[in-house]
Each structure stands twice: as C-alpha cells, then as structure tokens.
Design brief:
single chain, 249 residues, alpha+beta, Translation Initiation Factor IF3, Alpha-Beta Plaits, six-stranded antiparallel β-sheet, five-stranded mixed β-sheet, 4 helices, elongated
Length: 249
C-alpha cells in the first residue's frame, strides 16, 4: 500500500515536471514567434523611386479662325463662304488631307450703332460672322508648320488667326506600364544601397504606391500634386514616381 502511494506521488511529480518543461518550451517558441512577427512588422524600409523618359508627341490638334464684317447678313455669309473655300484650298496645298479639316458652325454677331454717349442703340450697323477650322493629324511636323505659316492667308484677303497646336502622345497607357516598372526597379536599387550601408539586405516588397505622372515640356521643373499633362510642347518629358516598402532581412 505504501509502495503504491510512493509510485503515485512519483508519477505526479514527473508529470508536473513534464508540464513545467512543456510550458517553458512553449513560452520560448511563442516568444520567438512574437519577436519574428514584431521584426516583420517593424523592420521595413520605405523609399521613393522615379523614372524619366523623353518622348515626341505623335498626334496634334490645331485650329485657326477667320471672320467677315458686312452691312448685311447675306453679304457677310457669302464673303465667309468664299474665305472658307480659300482656307481649305490653302491647307490642302500645304499637305493637309480634306478628311483632316473640320469646319465649325458659323458664329453670328450683330453690331449695333452707337449713340453720342457711346452706348449701343437698337439699330444694327453690321454683322460679323466668324468660323474656325480644325485639323487632327498624326503628322505632327506638318501641323506645326501649318500653324506657323497659315497666316499667309492674310495675303489672300482672309482675316485669319492661327492658334497654337495641342500635342498629344497616343501610347501613354503602354508607356505608363513601362515607366512604373522602371521606377519600381529604381526604388529597389535605392533600398538595397541604403540597407547595405548598415550591413543589412532587403527582402520581399511589402507595399507599393503609385504617384502621379508628370508630363512636362523638356527641361521644365513644373510639378503638381495632381500631375501635369502638358499639351503645348511637341517634345515632352514623362516622369513616374512610386513609393515602395521592403522588408529588411
């Protein structure tokens, strides 16, 4: 009876020791796991990467306007139609396609006589009719030349005004993908350089945030939180920016 009691006590002691050891081991494992989680959470490096590329616009939109002032509406309309014919003929002679030329609706303005005080009266003195033409073309060099030379129409009696062309790049979506990849690679290289300076190395990418694209004239320093989309320059510079976080091993 006494021997059975001693055996039972020994078993209880051994069981207690096993439980204590298991508890200690579990605590160590859990604490190591917790430390790894904390390290995973805290030990990161965030960098900003960028990439630039110079491009030439591949699509242009240009417009010019002309007008006529005559004492009657019929005379003004007839003169404006003659001017439109001259404008189209001139543009075609300079290399524009007939399908590229779009004429706007005619705008009509009544010009009233003035009284002795310089105020308008109810009597119409003349009519001013105006119209514009617009060209959309992939031949950006041709459009640029037209915008500069079209005022030659003045020599033909046309009151012509040429406006500055707008230049666009039609492959921007494909370019953005390329630029983002280069900007991310630039961010990775910066992170590696910073980590190596402290004797560490970077791990996998934790997060990435794309910044706005800046499409600016060449050599411009203009930036905007909403992005810049320049349409005034034939040749442009595209800048992409990304903010990336990497784990530190």
């Amino acid at each position: 009876m006494e021997g059975s009691r001693m055996l039972r006590n020994s078993q209880i002691i051994i069981l207690g020791i096993c439980i204590a050891v298991a508890t200690i081991v579990s605590s160590v494992i859990l604490s190591q796991g917790f430390l790894k989680v904390m390290k995973f959470t805290r030990e990161v490096i965030s960098v900003t990467g960028s990439a630039q590329k110079d491009i030439k616009s591949d699509y242009a939109v240009w417009s010019g306007s002309f007008s006529r002032r005559e004492p009657s509406l019929n005379l003004a309309y007839k003169a404006l139609q003659e001017d439109l014919s001259k404008v189209k003929s001139y543009l075609v002679s300079q290399g524009a396609s007939v399908n590229e030329i779009v004429a706007s609706p005619i705008n009509t303005e009544s010009i009233y006589k003035k009284n002795d005080k310089g105020n308008d009266t109810n009597d119409i003195e003349a009519y001013r009719l105006s119209q514009s033409v617009e060209i959309h073309s992939k031949d950006v060099d041709k459009v640029t030349q037209l915008s500069r030379q079209s005022t030659e129409l003045i020599n033909q009696g046309v009151e012509f005004t040429s406006f500055s062309p707008e230049y666009f790049y039609t492959k921007l979506d494909e370019l953005k993908i390329e630029m983002l990849a280069k900007a991310t690679e630039n961010a990775k290289q910066r992170a590696q350089n910073m980590a190596q300076a402290t004797g560490n190395k970077i791990g996998f990418m934790r997060s990435a945030k794309m910044g706005v694209f800046q499409i600016t004239p060449m050599n411009s320093t203009e930036v905007s939180d909403y992005g810049v989309n320049d349409t005034s320059s034939l040749e442009k510079r595209v800048t992409a920016v990304v903010t990336v976080s990497f784990a530190i091993e």
